[in-house]
Amino acid sequence: MQKCCKYDLEWQQVKPNYNELLSLSGSALTYARLEPEQYTNAKERLIWLDSDMIVLGSLEPLWNLDFQGMPIAAAPNVWGNPNNPEDKKPYFNAGLLVFNMKLWAAEKLSEKMMANAKVNLWCDCDQGTSNSVLAGRWLKLDQVWNNHDTDDTSTKVMHFISRPKPWESATPNKLWMEMLSQTPFKDELDKIQNNSDWLAGLKLKYRRWEPWLRQPIKKIKSYLKNRAR
Fold it and tell me: By three-state DSSP, how is residue 16 classified?
């Protein structure tokens, strides 16, 4: 990873306290967004980017934006609220976030996030938690900053939101393939290109059920608690 960029990378271990959170799927890493101060010394602002994104333009406008008194800035989720499709209120996607770290600390938002995640079972994990705690309190960014439309030429940050991801597909996104070919991981291209449709489908199916196989008791308890709500 260090060979891929000219900046020094700093690595952090994911905190163990996320294992107690209710979740039907997803890894512990996704919950790191709920406690940004645990992973950075940033005091003013912080930009979070998911790993399934390609940055196509300067992020300087995000770094210099006016929060307008909001604790976070984000782009709308293109499919709305996955926890309640009938809910038409604004709902953001957590793939790209700009944190107002001063306000985040002043309002102890990490504590509120963790408390919410411990008692609610959101189908989109930490994203549901963030939207619940910050309902109506986020600055709306233009969709170009978190765009699932890979054909939109105005895109600043491309986000492969849906599955299959490029590395799971038998026909990966061309731009993603081009970017991969410039990295030390370019040898993976042959493996990706040799993926058959049935094999890719099998991997996707297993990935969906893998958390249940690893933690059956926890997942069943989470499911039952959600059913009882």
Answer: helix
